[in-house]
Amino acid sequence: MSDTAARKKVLVFRELPADQLALLQAAHVVTVANPRIATQKAAFDAALPQAQGLIGSSYPIDAALLARAPRLEVVSSVSVGVDNYDLATLQSRGILLCHTPGVLTETTADTLFALLMATCRRVVELSNLVREGRWTKNIGEDLFGTDVHGKTLGLLGFGRIGQAVARRAALGFGMPVLYHARHAVDMAQQAPELAGRVRHAALDSLLAQADIVVAALPLSPATRGLMGAREFALMKPGAIFINGGRGATVDEGALLQALDHGPLRAAGLDVFATEPLPPDSPLRTHPKVTPLPHIGSATHETRHAMAALATRNLLQALAGQRPAAVYDTQAR
Ligand code: DGY
């Protein structure tokens, strides 16, 4: 696109791979400024009023910020989750929201399963024992883990990522799988490989039966604080809790209580209510918690695929075409 009239103002608010940035720069006038970086905040604020397209992730695009962007036509998120965006304002102003479903499904399911395995088998804790020179005798029962194969898995959320975790559990580890979701999935149609291996369950029933509960939930008004004191109290003694969806779907105080005085044996957490996790959070060093720094989709291949899809979405939207992955802001 060489016509200067067709070149639009794009604000990149989190760094993109060089090849994707070059695609944007070939078509539009691009400013790169990450408002989380103190030295770039002024450039971000200066570019926002002119911006017709925004692309990035991990920064709240709220009503106050959108009010400073009167020319905005499209926001392209380099994420599948859209909880950082004020959906009502985007909807009322007719600003398109794009995201990156699909390309991160298997990688995020790999992360969740790795965290599940690490938590059940105490991989990080026992590796640290070796690294710190504390492996001076055979480990005893106090450091044994708990089996994964054959255990009952309870999945909170059964979208693409939940289903990918279910495949690993049911087909790879012989685990009976229960899932809780707003609607039961027609397995024969949507996931025939899981038919007969996975069952829809009410939340309370799932929590009472599962040995391992994995949360893979988006954050919405319906899921915020879904796991609270009542729900943790319903879990089996010795159960394991894994969260790879969004931190705020869990009441972290109730989780700590369930670890210290309730039924939970351990928790593996890739997401937290506040990220990065504040240094004084008890979850950071709790002996029963395996924490990760929100790495669900963080592989070279997948982060590049996400950036490429987000870039394509933005270019298509600014060219007046229907982008590959538009989020329906009315969906909630
Ligand atoms: C997503 O894409 O929503 C992942 O959680 C990374 O932010």
Structural overview:
This protein has 332 residues and is of the alpha/beta class. It contains 13 helices and 12 strands. The strands form 2 sheets. A 7-stranded parallel sheet has the order 8-7-6-9-10-11-12, sandwiched between helices. It has a 5-stranded parallel sheet with strand order 2-1-3-4-5, sandwiched between helices. It starts with 8 loop residues before the first strand and ends in a 14-residue tail after the last helix. The model has no long low-confidence stretch (mean pLDDT 97). The structure holds (2R)-2,3-dihydroxypropanoic acid. (2R)-2,3-dihydroxypropanoic acid binds at residues 57, 79-81, 104, 296-297. The site of (2R)-2,3-dihydroxypropanoic acid (DGY) has 7 residues, from loops.
Main features:
332 residues, alpha/beta, Rossmann fold, 2 domains, 7-stranded parallel β-sheet, 5-stranded parallel β-sheet, 13 helices, globular, binds (2R)-2,3-dihydroxypropanoic acid
